[in-house]
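Homework help board

Subject: predicted structure for assignment chain

Our instructor gave us this sequence and asked us to write out the predicted structure in token form, then describe one feature. I got the tokens but I'm not sure how to describe them. Can anyone check?
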Amino acid sequence: MKYLLYPVFALLLVSFVSTPTDKEVVELNCQLNACEKVDQLHLFEFNGVNFTKIGSAPTTDWQNYKFQIPASRPRFYYVGIDANNLKPLILGTEKSISLKGSCSKFQNAQLPDSDLNQKYEAVKQQINQHKNQLTTYLRQLQIANQQNNVETANQIILKMKELDEERLHYIETLKKESPFLAKVAAINTYLSYHNHGTSGETELDYFGTKYFQLVDWNDPDYEYNAWVFEATKDYAQTLANIKLPVDQQKNFIDLQLSKIPQEKRTYMLALGGMIAGLQSGKSPLMATYAKKYIEMYGAKYPEAAAQLKNAVKATSSMMPGAEAPDFTMNTPDGQPLSLKDLRGKVLLIDFWASWCGPCRRENPNVVKAYKKYHDKGFDVLGVSLDKDKKRWLDAIEKDGLIWHHVSDLKGWANAAAQLYGVRSIPHTVLLDKDGKIIARNLRGAALEQKLAELFGE
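My token output:
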């Protein structure tokens, strides 16, 4: 089997239930403690990129904050002190609900008298359980296929069929309780290819074209439903993570977006999700869809547009073919060394640290590659995320790292690591003779193979 896909699903609190009421208001009473410095709370909505403030509630006693919101279909709102400290909740159909907790731990606040929010917790748990079970079966099937164990593979496929039927039955059950709950479950239900793919259809084509086969994108209940963002994010990230060619990624994404009416708010959430997934998967297509979002929604959401412009700029500078951002840092003897000073050779920027076990275990591979290809035009620049200079120098000597080294001795705050978006080490960036990025995170056999390609051996 050529492709075995493992969609990554992030669970986010989202709205549910149905039927709006006309010309009425919903009241949200926030009863909180430890709010001595919080003179008002704010209500936000999500636009697919960031949170926008749509209302505020002042306080007179540092404990009670009251919002009045037009009654509507169930909608996903966020309430909090600022955009970085928010509690997601469901509003729209219940006339009055209370939020109880503490301003010091705002995200842990509870909604004890909200039937909507209480019921949703159970639905969320069930959705998560189904997804985890599917992931387990897919992994077991991959192992069975690798071992050519046909009998075991068929048994797993049968279990996947039973799970599919259980998930479909769950959606039908939810329709009787709440149509909205059923829609939340539907957008989170990916039926197995092995039991629902058609003759001649590859798993990749099935995933790319039928991932959202249970979703009606015309339904207005998806317009303020954060699951639209989460589901499209997972979809796009999976396409990027399996290293699908960019043109095929684009074909699938364009197909899915074409099914959503552009005049609906659902399209904005889906577009934002695709952008986030492509960015997480380090796909160059992120810039393509970010520019589309800016064109369509930048006037209404200028902060989101500015955020995307910065993300496109940062992402583009890190893509293969882009010129590697320059930096200057001191060598062990205190002399400044710039990245541009090392142009003219194929260069590996190696982010590491003396305290990093995986880095130290990887060092012999880099030493081997350096000795084999240095005379042919290969060089290494070690960028250490150490804080202790002695430990840094001792590790260089002990591991025999006979190349260029720099550090600002600021640990994870290392300026070059932050510039390159390094979140874990070891982390490598391979540059050509002109300082343009060839690839990132090549280690061991992968680095050896790439160098052999570059130097003809």
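Reply (TA_rk): Your tokens look well-formed. For the description, you could write something like this. The two ends are 31 Å apart (CA to CA). That's the kind of observation they're looking for.
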